[in-house]
Amino acid sequence: MQIDAVDQRIIALLVADARASYADIGARVSLSAPAVKRRVDRLRSAGVIRGFTAVVDPAAVGWTTEAFVELFCAGRTTPAQIGAAARRHPEVVGAYTVSGEADALIHLRAADIAHLEEALERLRAESFVTSSRSTIVLSRLVESPGVGPSTG
């Protein structure tokens, strides 16, 4: 599917505010609301836009402690096995296979250090995990809601 500059701006605007109306987006990209809707429908049907979601402030729900955990796995552990295990833990907000020494990088959020430790222990108890290395986040410096060019 071809994605032009207008599609890219529409995507960026939706990433910034998924509740923006087609009329508001159209005003920003010089299209009518129906034209924006047609483009969004096309992007959705092509799988470029997979859905719309609410972004919740973790602090507002009390999950203010976060860490990145490098997982080191046994033998021929597959990405599918790591992904399935990560989905079993509600504290996991991201899981990635990575290059380098570790096999995977897991992003955890928890209510406090005790909750984080408990989540780490459960994660490390997965049968394929041989060791882990954790880094606790002190402060967030940059966080972007998505991909694409600036909404200008």
TrEMBL record:
Keywords: DNA-binding, Transcription, Transcription regulation
Highest taxon, organism lineage: Bacteria
UniProt GO MF annotations: sequence-specific DNA binding
GO-annotated biological processes: response to amino acid
Entry-linked InterPro entries: AsnC-type_HTH_dom (IPR000485), Dimeric_a/b-barrel (IPR011008), Tscrpt_reg_AsnC-like (IPR019888), Tscrpt_reg_AsnC/Lrp_C (IPR019887), WH-like_DNA-bd_sf (IPR036388), WH_DNA-bd_sf (IPR036390)
Gene3D superfamilies assigned: 3.30.70.920, Winged helix-like DNA-binding domain superfamily/Winged helix DNA-binding domain
Domain HTH asnC-type intervals: 3-64
GO cellular component: cytosol
Keyword Cytoplasm belongs to the record: no
Pfam families, per the entry: AsnC_trans_reg, HTH_AsnC-type
PANTHER family for the chain: LEUCINE-RESPONSIVE REGULATORY PROTEIN, TRANSCRIPTIONAL REGULATORY PROTEIN (PROBABLY ASNC-FAMILY)-RELATED
Name recorded for this polypeptide: AsnC family transcriptional regulator
